[in-house]
Amino acid sequence: MTLSRLAMMSLGFVLAATPAALAQADKIVAKVNGIAITERDVALATEDLGERLAQVPEERKRDEVVNYLVDLKLGAKAATDAKVADGPDFAARLAYNRDKVLLDEYLQREAKKAATPEAAKKLFDDTVKALPPEEEIHARHILVEDEAQAKTATERVKKGEDFAKVAAELSKDPGSGKEGGDLGWFSKDRMVPEFAEAAFKLQKGQISDPVKSQFGWHVIKLEDRRTKPAPDFAAVKPQIDQYLERKAQQDIVLALREKAKVERLDQPAAATPAPAAEPKKR
What we know:
Blueprint: H1 3-9, H2 11-15, H3 19-25, E1 28-32, E2 35-38, H4 39-49, H5 58-81, H6 90-114, H7 117-130, E3 135-144, H8 147-158, H9 163-170, E4 182-187, H10 193-201, E5 211-213, E6 216-227, H11 233-259
Antiparallel strand pairs: 1-2, 3-4, 3-6, 5-6
Helix pairs in contact: 1-4, 1-6, 4-5, 6-11, 7-11
């Protein structure tokens, strides 16, 4: 079940918070054969259609949703007139969907209680403390096709030519070449082994001998090194909130299961183990 769907299921409760919001939610935007379509219907249908609206231009989305609701109301009325609701499976389908909506709404309400700002900050702080320190380096490189070109580049920069200028002139790396070979900050596992081993052995300001990898030949310059900083809390808070909500939902369901008596009548009862035989008397 998606959090967006759960959030939309609680829309009515949120909008009901004030008379003005309630009036806006119940505002009639269209009628089809006298049947009203409200802003609340538009909001729910917009969420339900989801990806179907992704390719629709923003200025047309509302019309698409209202047209969908017109078809929905017409189809539902036709189904009612055809007594579809009297069919043997309809009541069961309706009950199933009612249970699902109730569960979604309940989990949404309870999970929101777990994703408090205090809980999010505590989880962030605890996670950061538990992370082992990881070294990062800031490096530049010049990528060329063969060893001879790499040796030429190495000789030029070790004689004092500006590394960034030589990289911009010679490097075949489409990502960093125009940036003077700048690779930014990275950890050892971010690079192919041959490159990483050579780069992390360098001292600040040092330039490597030519290094071969699957991409070609590299000349590497180490700009700086540091311990990888913790991520910014504000940047990762949405993911933390999502984790807390999902975990809370899982915990709620597991707790309900533990308290329940579940009987599987579609499976044979587990065989009762035979009592252990008493040892024979001598």
